[in-house]
Amino acid sequence: MDEAVPQSWRAALAPVLGTPEARRLGGFLKAEEAAAKLIYPARGARLAALALTPLDRVKVVILGQDPYHGPGQAHGLSFSVPQGVRIPPSLANIYKELRDDCGIAPASHGDLSRWARQGVLLLNTSLTVEHGQAGSHRQIGWQAITGAILAAVAAKPQPCVFMLWGNHARQVAQQVPGLTGSHHLLLTAPHPSPLSAYSGFFGCRHFSQANAFLTAHGRGTIDWELAPQ
User: Fold this and answer.
1) I need a labelling partner for 15 at 20 to 30 A (CA). Which of 44, 103, 198, 206 fits?
2) pLDDT tens-digit series, residues 120-139
């Protein structure tokens, strides 16, 4: 893998990055790009979640599945899109729940970088995807790396909040050593996609619950408001 791992995450990821599986992952991505396939996000952005949220600053994890697979959408943060890109339906539903839960008006953009800089790790379990092919990189080796990321957060002595939306996120969390039954708070709900948001995502109140938990454990709060940028 060609991406430079941010300093705060290197110790946690060093063992897995030295494995044959990680080398195969890097070889696969190079071969796909050499074959002129479009891979999202672009090089340099694939570890953006780690760059914006150092391990020692993680307070909340919002776990997604794989990056958006349309042009210009993915920039390395789960559920987030860059400035100027149309807000995807799942993110629009996240904004609706945030409004109902915390009274925060929906942002006019989809860039969640401000959350990331406050300690919200916006992580997908697969960090790349082929153009127009949702889930195309789920079986190429990313899970070993993102699993190590989640395990590093689970091992933190400071309590963190894990927002697990949908079956995939819950299943991944169950496989993280030491997470279930730990000192961390695991919040589960259906996925915010239009297909399932009305089955329990709306009304889950995860944002206020996260801040209440963080406050109770002396970790401050997340300012969920996304000011115009």
Assistant:
1) 44
2) 999 999 999 999 999 999 98
